[in-house]
Specification:
The complex is a heterodimer of chains A (43) and B (218). Chain A has 43 residues and is α+β, with helices and mostly antiparallel strands. Helices cover 42% and strands 30% of the residues of chain A. A two-stranded antiparallel ribbon of chain A has the order 1-2. The longest helix of chain A has 10 residues. Helix content of chain B is 48%, strand content 15%. Chain B is built from ten helices and seven strands. The relative contact order of chain B is 0.09. In chain B, α8 packs across α9. The chains are: A alpha+beta (43), B alpha/beta (218). The interface between A and B is large, with 32 and 39 residues.
Chain lengths: 43, 218
């Protein structure tokens, strides 16, 4: 997934979501745990 | 929210959401995610049918300490009105958006000043391929998809088109591999498929490996 914005009247690339997730510590394991806590994923 | 914490170093986010079960659930989840990354989330809600969202936006604008980003959740007029009315409420901050409006009307209905401050999660195929970095692994595939779509339909491919194309691709790949038996298709997609679409992989085994750390995220 990417982060998008609007430039010159069109959707435009702004960055990779993965880069920001890593920088703030939201690793795939942390995200999976959060999804389980929120009952979005089952154990 | 991770992007805003990373790029804009925000520590306090004000959220406006629809006053329904989905909106309230998302607000609760946003607060929980915020706790994980050191971002405080405060929220206000109004009915999705409201067209004057200034009451909630003004509450967020007067929060102390001040919010450093606005998080808008909702689809249809609610979200676009919230973003456009933010400045009227005195909110001149980056906006993060989640909802179903990632379609051309988002571009046409937001003022240019607001549009430049809006950021949202998207699939690669939902942006102009010319704006992707040249070293993006999917750029050439997306360019070809968007050119073929425009040639066939006479319009730019939007997020639903790009995502729908890849979703259909997973089923086409399954039928080509295991035939038309429903159970076999489901088992194949859930456990064995390694399908590279126009803009991403579909592989549950690959996703599991990312979670366990045995392969890097990509």
């Amino acid at each position: 997934l990417i982060i998008a914005t609007i430039k010159n009247g069109k959707f435009a690339f702004a960055g990779y979501l993965k880069d920001s997730l890593e920088k703030v510590g939201l690793t795939p394991a942390v995200i999976e745990q959060l999804m389980k806590e929120e009952s979005i994923l089952s154990d | 929210m991770a992007y805003h914490a990373d790029k804009f170093k925000v520590k306090r986010v004000g959220m406006i959401t629809t006053a329904d079960a989905v909106g309230q659930r998302l607000a609760a989840t946003a607060k929980k995610v915020g706790e994980k990354i050191g971002v405080q989330v405060i929220s206000e809600a109004q009915p999705a049918s409201d067209r004057d969202l200034l009451p909630s936006l003004r509450k967020l604008a007067s929060a102390s300490p001040a919010i450093e980003a606005l998080y808008v959740f909702g689809s249809g007029p609610f979200a676009n009105i919230a973003m456009n009315q933010a400045e009227l409420a005195g909110l001149n901050v980056p906006i993060l958006y989640t909802g179903g409006n990632v379609i051309p009307s988002l571009v046409s209905e937001l003022s240019p000043a607001v549009a430049a401050k809006v950021f949202f999660t998207n699939a690669r195929g939902g942006v102009g391929s010319d704006t992707l970095p040249d070293n993006d692994a999917y750029k050439k595939k997306i360019q070809a998809f968007q050119a073929a779509y425009k040639a066939k339909f006479g319009d730019d491919a939007t997020l639903p088109a790009a995502v729908g194309y890849d979703m259909a691709g997973t089923i086409v790949d399954a039928i080509r591999t295991v035939g038309t038996d429903r159970t076999a298709i489901a088992e194949y997609i859930r456990g064995k498929q390694h399908f590279a679409g126009v803009q991403a992989w579909n592989s549950r085994a690959r996703k599991k490996a990312m979670v366990t750390g045995s392969i890097p995220t990509s």
